[in-house]
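Contributing new records

If you add data, match the layout below exactly. Sequence lines come first and carry their own label; structure lines follow with theirs. Keep one chain per record. Anything else will be rejected by the validation script.
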Amino acid sequence: MDLWIRNQDKTVLTKVNNIYTMENTIWFEVPFYENMKKTGLTVTGHNHKLGNYSSKERCIEILDEIQEHICMQGKSKITDINEHGEISGMKFYSFVYEMPEG
């Protein structure tokens, strides 16, 4: 399943793998590029802000909400069953979470 998040000011829509809080801000990490790993270069990921909030507790509430969305939406759907009754096609859902205002 893919998790897509739109940042708080609506200027970025990105697929994310790692979300974390620091102080009153929620961030996501962009991993190194695959070609950098293949060439053996050590390049760290970049961090990008998703939203600013009034408190660390509010950040935790939002992470809890994102986690709930992942649990509810992280489902798949059978798209095809062959003549033997075996599953031959699956669709995995992605969704977009919009960061709420502060």
